[in-house]
Amino acid sequence: MSIPLYLVDAFTAHPFAGNPAAICLLSAPRDAGWMQNVAAEMNLSETAFLVPADEGFDLRWFTPTVEVDLCGHATLASAHVLWETGRLPADADARFHTRSGLLTARRDGEWIELDFPAYPAELVSPPPDVLAGLGVEPVAVSLARDGHNHVVELASEAAVRALEPDFTRFRRLETGVIATARGDDPGVDFVSRYFASAFGIDEDPATGSTHCVLGPYWQKRLGKSELRARQISARGGELRVRVEGDRTAIAGQAVTVLGGELVDVPQTAPACPTPALGR
Fold this sequence. Notes:
- The chain has 6 helices and 19 strands.
- It is an alpha+beta fold and 279 residues long.
């Protein structure tokens, strides 16, 4: 039996930009080790696995090395595939049961809006490898309340673009590192790059879950709750962010670039890594 599999570029309106995610549509739950093997085979920052459930879909996310608790771009890509393939009516919200609770997605014209948690950040003295790995002097360093990411504010967008991180140092961390600054473009409130070496990805192209932290961070800094964001990786990503109390609405677009079938070859899976980290 073969399994439908799609490759979707998320947080972009154009193919070959944004963040690619593999979306695997399962008819029944599968073993975590098998899913980890598929994610390693896809070798993308995330592979999402969807199983029909009561009032929605069960959703799990895997990097090539670990299962994670939260992933924005693969959730957006999952909703896009469900609507595009007719598995979900065009006017219905997508409901996902995840390790981070119930997450929803709705269509807003050409955009898809995700309802995610908000994770405020608090000023901290970071581990030495955070700043040494970036090699720059920060404006401020904070730690997200969920404990998964350090937020490093830099003086300018140019400083964020110019970063050449020492990923060897970042691999010694237990957190990701978000570098961010105010945007230069009048239509962009803030920019960011995300270094997730601790989770098996040196730089993630466009990341939804980091904006659960960046939304509240820049809401406080800029005094506004509706924000436009740009992730300035090599592929780039465009996002809309709205902070509403303890929730963050994160919106983006998505494009399917590949559709096919995964051959369901039985195999003995290696032990699945145990860390469950936010992305």
